[in-house]
Amino acid sequence: MSAVIRHDWQLNEIEALFALPFNDLLFQAQQVHRANFDANAVQVSTLLSIKTGACPEDCKYCPQSAHYRTDVDKERLMAVEKVLEEARAAKAQGASRFCMGAAWRNPKDRDMPYVIEMVKGVKELGLETCMTLGMLSPQQAQALKQAGLDYYNHNLDTSPEFYGEIISTRTYADRLSTLQNVRDAGMKVCAGGIVGMGESRRDRAGLLAQLANLPQHPESVPVNMLVKVQGTPFAELDDLDPFEFVRTIAVARILMPQSFVRLSAGRESMNDQLQALCFMAGANSIFYGERLLTTANPETNRDLALFERLGLKPLAHEDYSDDVHEAVISDAVAEQQQPVRYYEVS
C-alpha cells in the first residue's frame, strides 16, 4: 500500500474504492498518506489572478468566461512589479508556492516576455512558482521552463465522458496535449478537476483514472468543489454531498500515493469539520488567502487557526524537495516494517 505506484487502474477498481464503507476508505487513505508524507504537514500556496475575465472559452462553471454575464470585472495583464508585490506579501504570510493564473485560451507571443519576467522575479524571492495560462505549445512550455517555472497547472476538469457537458471550445485531447508539453519541457504537473458539476460517481472515478493512469502522476492534484456563481450555467446545480467530496479526496490519495492532493476551490463553503475530514482523507495542500482567482477563499487567519486546532503545520519550501520527500518515504516504509499494532480492515 505504501510503495506501489500504478498507472493501470481500471474503472471498476476505482468505483469499488468509492463504494467502501466511509471509515474503511478513510483508513486506507490515511495509511497510504502516512506511508508517503508527514501526516500533519500541509503545503500552502497562494493564487493570484494576473489577468482576469474576457476568456473566450465557454466552461460552464467559470465566471471569467466571456460567454456569460457575471460580476467579474475584466482586467488587463497585471504589471510585473505589482505581481512581485503580491508574491512578497504571500511569502510573508507563510506561502511556499506562488501560483499565477490568467484567463486565456492560450498565451499570445506578445504576452510571454511579461509572464517570463514574473516567473523570474518570484523565483528570486525564494518561492516555488506555478502558472495556469491555458493551453501551451511545446515552445511556450520550453520558454517557461527556462525561466524557472516549477509547476504548470492544467486541469482535466472531469471524465472524458462527461466533458462535453462542461465545455465545447476545447477538447479533452487538447488538455492532455498541454500536459504532455509541460512534461516534455521538464516542468512538474499540477492537474486535477472539479466535482459537483452534476457528474455521476462514475465520472468522478473516470477523472481520477485519467490522472492516475498518466505516464507520470501529477506532482500536485487539486480537487475543486464547484463554486456556483450567478450568471454561469451551473449557478443553480444541487450541492454535492460533502461525504462524497471527502471520498473523492481519499480515492485520489490511494491512487496517487506520492502526489500532493490539494483541497482547492470551494473551501469557503466548508466548515472546519469537513476540512478536517479532508485532511484525514489525505489532502495535504491548500490555497490560502482571501481570494482564489475570482471566488472567495477562507481568510489566512482562519486557516492558521484551524491548523492550530488540528495540530497541523505549513510545509516550508525546503521541506518537500525531492531528496527530502524520498527520505520521508524511506522513513515511513521502515516504520511500516515494524510490528503491526493494529488490525487491517478486511
Give an overview of the whole structure.
One of its GO terms (molecular function) is biotin synthase activity. Pathway: Cofactor biosynthesis; biotin biosynthesis; biotin from 7,8-diaminononanoate: step 2/2. Keywords: 2Fe-2S, 4Fe-4S, Biotin biosynthesis, Iron, Iron-sulfur, Metal-binding, S-adenosyl-L-methionine, Transferase. It catalyses: (4R,5S)-dethiobiotin + (sulfur carrier)-SH + 2 reduced [2Fe-2S]-[ferredoxin] + 2 S-adenosyl-L-methionine = (sulfur carrier)-H + biotin + 2 5'-deoxyadenosine + 2 L-methionine + 2 oxidized [2Fe-2S]-[ferredoxin]. Belongs to the radical SAM superfamily. Biotin synthase family. 39% of the residues lie in helices and 15% in strands. It is of the alpha/beta class. The chain has a single domain, classed as Aldolase class I (TIM Barrel). The strands form two sheets. Strands 1, 2, 3, 4, 5, 6, 7, 8, 9 and 12 form a ten-stranded parallel sheet that branches. Helix 4 links the parallel strand 2 and strand 3. Helix 4 packs parallel to helix 5, helix 7 runs parallel beside helix 8 and helix 8 packs parallel to helix 9. 45% of the residues are buried. The C terminus is likely disordered.
